Amino acid sequence: MSEERLVRRAQQMRKKRPRMSISRLMAFAFLGIILLGTVLLDLPVASKDGRSAGILTSLFTATSATCVTGLILRDTGSQWSAFGQVVILTMIEIGGLGFMSAASLAYMTLRRRIGMRSQMVIAEAIGASSMSNVISHQKNLMTRAFIVEGAGALILSFRFMADYPVGQALKLGIFHSVSAFCNAGFDILGPDSGMSVYHTDPIVCLTLSALVILGGLGFLVWDEILRERKTPHTWSVYVRLVLITTGVLLLGGMVLTCVLEWDNPATLGPLSFGEKILAAFFQSMTLRTAGFSGLDQSALTPASKGLSIFLMLIGGSSGSTAGGLKTVTFVVLLMFLWNRMRGKYTVSVFHRTIADDHVLNAITIFITMVGLSFAGAVVIAATSPIGFTDSLYEAVSAIGTVGLTAGATPNLSLPAKILIMVFMYFGRVGVLTLSVGFLKKKPAGEKFRYANTDLLIG
Q1: What is the DSSP string of 44-60?
Q2: How many CB atoms lie within 10 A of CB 272?
């Protein structure tokens, strides 16, 4: 065979070779980070006692950190050494800001050229509406994220200096600032106290809340408000929906928490009026996938647990460090239901019509997450000594990447622990890749269509 024919054949084989889809690339990248983190955390040097934590604990912690969830089998502050905590913090940062953001930052640091395919992946991971100036957009995104985290770390460090030595205070400030901005919920304050020690401290609570809310708004919102400097009445429909929904959920969650927990002696009961308001706001905020446990979640009333499950399922906003169903998805579902009950077939908001595809996508994600949550709760309740309500709380917390627990995590059976890890992975990667699939997928052509039939609905 001539050299020319060999070259042509090689070119044809390259053309036929299937390319890895963006969704699959995202999934494998996150999986790779989790496995690497598991190996590092399983090293004896990662534990304070100098002994390996065990493959299951290491894998569970790595999954929780990379998927910015916060569920743990062992306390972060007492189990992991300084090396282990650095590994966890690194995985939180990568999982929060997006491993694509970290990869692009490394490319920019090394001054390598980023190809069009890589730009597409980065654009979708950070929620960019187009590929134009994606590298400039990425630089601004990373710079703003580090500035916000740095400011939060500075404020928290000064506050912690009143209770800890300077070095320990700086460590606590940096760790909790990153954990809050990335909506991870990991804390290293100790197994017997955690964030509950500061749940009535206005400096700590409000700083963490600001970090969580900013991280959960999403980078699209940041970009439109800060870079384009538009006035509120010219903001896009998406940005207005995100801001309004976030505000309503935060205030609504605070008010309902006050109503349901005001006289509960195990939560808000012993606090003063101002402390109750602050603790209720912190609880409402942390349910937006932040995962910092200010109040004892196991001591909440059944009604409060139901409210918590509802808020955890909604989560933050698209293109953010938060997980969950997403705020705008929730609003689209509400508007669709409201319009259908009034006999309308279109969904509109702010004098704009929402495309039918968006409505169907929202319904698909909602049914998927709710169905998985209830199925997971059944499995947990069947295999672990945990009631159904706490099992559902645990399942929603995992799939929404929240990280709060009503005390069930340490009592999970092996199958339940594996299920929770799968849920954390799906909550961070599955929903993201599902959304990317909606964006990239072309409508499938139908070769034929069956005749219509009538059904009784309702």
Answers
A1: GGGBTTSS---HHHHHH
A2: 9
- Percentage helix, strand, coil, to 5, in the chain? 65, 0, 30
- Number of H helices and E strands in the chain, helices first, is 19, 2
Q: Are strands 347-349 and 352-354 parallel, antiparallel or unpaired?
A: antiparallel
Kindly list the distances between the CA atom of residue 104 and the CA atoms of 32, 87, 158, 387, in Å, as whole numbers in the listed order.
17, 20, 33, 45
How far apart are the C-alpha atoms of 18 and 29, rounded to whole Å?
A: 18
Token pair for residue 97? 């800001």
Degrees, nearest 5: CA angle 189-251-296? 35
pLDDT band at 133 (very low <50, low <70, confident <90, very high): low
Residue 388's pLDDT band (cuts 50, 70, 90): very high
DSSP 3-state of 344: coil
Structure tokens at 393: 């709380």
**Based on the number of CB atoms within 10 Å of its own CB, is 195 exposed (0-12), middle (13-18) or buried (19 or more)?**
buried
- State residue 372 phi and psi, 5-degree precision: -65, -40
CA distance 185 to 67: 11
How high is the pLDDT of residue 109? Answer: 47
pLDDT in tens, 275-333: 999 999 999 999 988 888 888 898 999 999 999 999 999 988 877 778 888 888 898 89
- According to DSSP, the residues that pair with 80 across neighbouring strands are 47
The angle, 0 to 180 degrees and rounded to 10, between the axes of the packed helices 273-286 and 237-261 is 130
Q: Say how many CA atoms lie within 13 Å of 54 toward its Cβ.
A: 6
Render pLDDT for 346-385 as a digit per residue (tens, 0 to 9): 888 887 888 877 788 888 889 989 999 999 999 999 999 9
User: Distance between CA atoms of 296 and 282, rounded to whole angstroms?
Assistant: 12
pLDDT in tens, 94-131: 888 765 564 444 444 444 455 555 555 555 455 554 54
User: For position 229, what pLDDT does the model report?
Assistant: 59
Cβ(418)–Cβ(8) under 8 Å? no
Round to whole Å and give the CA distance between 212 and 180: 5
Residue 227 has pLDDT above 80, yes or no: no
Q: Where are the alpha helices (DSSP H) in 189-298?
A: 202-217, 219-222, 237-261, 273-286
DSSP 2-37: -HHHHHHHHHHHHHHSPPPPHHHHHHHHHHHHHHHH
